[in-house]
Write a structure and sequence with these properties.
The chain has 2 domains: about 250 residues, QueA-like (3-Layer(aba) Sandwich); about 90 residues, Thrombin, subunit H, CATH 2.40.10.240. About 20% of the residues lie in helices and about 25% in strands. It contains 7 helices and 18 strands. The strands form 3 sheets. The chain has a 9-stranded mixed β-sheet with strand order 2-1-18-17-15-3-13-14-16, with helices on one face. Strands 5-6-8-11-10-9 form a 6-stranded antiparallel beta barrel. It has a two-stranded parallel sheet with strand order 4-12. Strand 5 and strand 6 form a beta hairpin. Helix 6 packs across helix 7.
């Protein structure tokens, strides 16, 4: 555990300082009728001002010449239901991104060691076969913390097709309803890359973009680049340490392509700001710099935890949704804009009926 001075601790380091009252009715249960019809709170740090508009006005609000960097990972229907050999029902949530699953042949089956969550009325037994489909099985191997298991995944045929045939979108726990066919479209960005399938949660700041908004951005001279972060279930994990400096962040796999690294270098050299589309993009960019100590192509894991006092090396502005109290995400945006400023912005959002979390409204920090 880090040896921090616990005397006269700054409120910025106290978890309780990131709490706020959030009425249940402000938690969005459905997406907006149209993606770009979401509301947008504009926080201008230079002017110290807050403005309210619609997301479709974003191209008129961004810093001139900005480079936008978005997470192109694709959400998969990773929530599956199966049965034990005894007949008991089991829910399985696949946590390992599909591109990272390394299968090995074993007779007629392909097998891989993956991580997932298992839920059933009676605890799963090590080595017991759970049947999802005739051609898809899960075998629990080793239990971890908070319901996680290392399991053997067994399948015959194309794994992604099997999962898509039976799985459900893993809507966040604060959306109190089953997933629908509409969620299959709306809980996915319009620019999600099929080759980057594997997130169990959407990079939600990107949900507001339409092809029309993207076209307007291009016509206005904004540059667009992609990174990949496979959003894991850890994004919903609470911070449990009273002093946030003691928190250990979950690891996530990230990719910064060479073209994106080069685009960032050009923007920095030309004095153009880098705007991260969502906290996942921000975490990817800052995680890359933390690992490389430079702007470079990168593939690997990051466990970077961004909290007040952190010096952003890549990200200048951020487009983001509104986050849970005492979460690592509200702590991250507080590192960029200041904790008291963010809490005041959230207060303004609530007073004006903004919708929070994944299907909620957005905020631009510029």
């Amino acid at each position: 555990m880090p040896n921090h001075d616990k005397t006269n601790v700054s409120p910025d380091f106290l978890l309780e300082s990131y709490n706020f009252d959030l009425p249940e009715e402000n938690i969005a249960q459905q997406p907006a009728d149209k993606r770009d019809a979401s509301r947008l709170l504009v926080l201008d740090r230079g002017e110290g001002s807050l403005g309210i508009t619609r997301f479709r006005e974003l191209p008129d609000l961004l810093p001139k010449g900005a480079l936008l960097v978005a997470n192109n990972s694709k959400v998969i229907p990773a929530r599956m239901f199966g049965s034990k050999q005894t007949g008991g029902k089991v829910e399985f949530l696949l946590l390992t991104p599909l591109p990272l699953i390394e299968g090995r042949e074993n007779d007629e089956w392909t097998e891989a060691c993956v991580e997932g969550l298992l839920r059933s009325s009676k605890p799963a037994k090590q080595g017991a076969i759970i049947t999802i489909l005739d051609d898809l099985q899960v075998i629990p191997e080793e239990r971890g913390d908070f319901g996680k298991w290392n399991v053997t995944l067994r399948w015959r045929g194309d794994l992604e097709q099997l999962i898509c045939a039976t799985g459900h979108l893993p809507l966040p726990p604060y959306i109190k309803r089953p997933d629908t066919s509409e969620d299959a479209k709306r809980y996915q960005t319009t620019y999600a890359d099929d080759s980057k399938a594997g997130s169990v949660a959407a990079p939600t700041a990107g949900l507001h973009f339409t092809p029309e908004v993207r076209e307007k951005l291009r016509n206005a001279g904004f540059e667009w680049a992609h990174v990949t972060l496979y959003v894991g279930y850890g994004t919903f994990s609470p911070v449990r340490c009273a002093d946030i400096r003691d928190h250990r962040m979950h690891k996530e796999y990230i990719e910064v392509p060479r073209e994106t690294a080069e685009a960032i270098k050009r923007a920095k050299a030309e004095g153009r700001p880098v705007v991260a589309i969502g906290t996942t993009s921000a975490r990817t960019l800052e995680g890359m710099f933390s690992e490389c100590k430079n702007i470079c192509e990168f593939k690997g894991e990051t466990d970077i935890f961004i909290y007040p006092g952190y010096e952003f090396r890549i990200v200048d502005s951020l487009l983001t949704n509104f986050h849970l109290p005492e979460s690592s995400l509200i702590i991250m945006v507080s590192a960029l804009a200041g904790r008291e400023t963010i809490l005041e912005a959230y207060k303004t959002a609530l007073e004006n009926g903004f919708r929070f979390f994944s299907y909620g409204d957005a905020m631009l920090i510029r």
